[in-house]
Amino acid sequence: MVDFKKKIAESIAQVLEMNVNEIEACIENPKGTDNGDYAFPCFRLAKTMRKAPPVIAEEIKNKLQVNEQYICKVEVVGGYVNFFVNKEKLANEVLQEISKSNAYGKSEIGKGKNVVVDYSSPNIAKPFHIGHLRSTVIGGALYNIYKYLGYNVTGINHLGDYGTQFGKLIEGYKRWGTEYNIDENPIEELTNIYIRINQACKEDEAILEECRNNFKKLEEGDIYCVELWNKFKDVSLKEFQKIYDLLGSKFDSWNGEAFYSDKMAEIVELLEKSGKLVKSEGARIIDLENKGMAPCIIEKSNGSSTYATRDLAAIMYRARTYDFDKVLYLTSYEQVLHFKQVFETAKLLGLDEKYTNGLEHVPFGMVLLKTGKMSTREGNIIKLEDLLNESISRAKEIIQEKNPNLENKEEIAKRVGLGAVIFNDLANSRLKDEIFDWDTILNFQGETGPYIQYTYVRTKSVIEKVGEVPDIKNVKISLLLDDASSKILKLIYNFEDILIQVTEKSEPSILSRYLIDVAKAYSNFYNENKIIVDDKDIQNARVYLTYAVGKVLKTGAGLLGIEMPDKM
Ligand code: ARG
Known about the structure:
alpha/beta, three-stranded antiparallel beta sheet, 11% strand, flat, binds arginine
């Protein structure tokens, strides 16, 4: 498609001493339609040119030679030069592209770049909590979008499968394993054992010693301990897999923390070599006081490694294995300090700067129930699988009420129920805490997943009524220049740009908001215009626009991990 922004930047570059890319980076997308489609602000030029911004804007406008094929009007408002895109050209570009491509907006701009997404990453023998769900959903969306833009992406589930708690679990299992039904209810039962053994450790130092010993044995490869650890891991993964199946989550690697157990010695050595590894209260740490942070603990006083050491080993391994340009870590903002410490310490490993500069923590907010924090510690454990299934059954009730004769209700309810939960996780900027409320997320008319699905279904039913999508050759673009149509076409034109913005800000909500905008623009168009009419030219044009909207909604939602129903 024609890159209008670039065209504008090129024409400005001929009258200003600035290069095209610099100009392009300055060009803004004004809100609303009064100020055109693109605006070039002149405020920053005032100093060097020693003139007022409106004067500069006027000068640019007067000297400028724009190609009318692309830009139909240039206006100065205050210190801005506003550009109005030739609507017919834009409409034509968009619809031609839609007709040609099965993967609208797909590109190769990421070709040759390696991105690692570290996401989901629940802990073995512990509940998969709502924070892991957010990590899975946001990380999954980023994974898909990077891939769609041509990056080489590796999705890693950095399982929490290591640490002294496994020594405790082994001890608890050894003592009371037969009392618990681990195969049936693994996570709950293992949690119960864990609570019980913790209590026992508090009462009896000798038991705690046994636990530590177990962990040591586990590290040394003791058969009994390793076997048990494998069992805990297997049953936990089976539980987690139920959630991944519902969400359609896939990972390229399941290398969790334990995978790095034999890779930490090298890290300690490298840190020793750096001269920065110091003793403190029996532990070995990297002092980060001059960076304004608490120290990064590398080895605890009892000699065992830490979560941070394992993350450092993972950075080294990933640099070697994936030659990454970027690693994205998705966790809640509770781990902001951890990653700051790790990234700072990673600079001491002698890695190429390419790697240390590519580390990026992508934190997100908490999920709050309308009644307060969803917590596992206070005992109000909400099983994620139950939550997803509840969403599906609530969706089913709504569908049953609205459209009792619908075929294939099960599958549709599944898509709608899951779409509602997924969209809710992506609807607002990720750092905001999210309020979880059933009525809001399942509202078909709100800014929700089901609303996007509902709008998509509308486009499908229009096409079904007409019988087929008209051939693009029979579409008269000149019939799609009214405001409602133009608004939709401009949104569709921006799709790829939106995906790029998502990657630049690690913010999938940019795409979620965008899909809401598209759906609203279409609803507006749908309310204003009859689509199926006697005039075949008008009908063809409007049906084609409808088809384009459906395509973008489906593609965009798919990238977010939301499947579209064909009916609902
Ligand atoms: N298992 C951790 C948790 O549940 C998240 C791991 C995130 N990834 C990482 N490389 N540290 O909090």
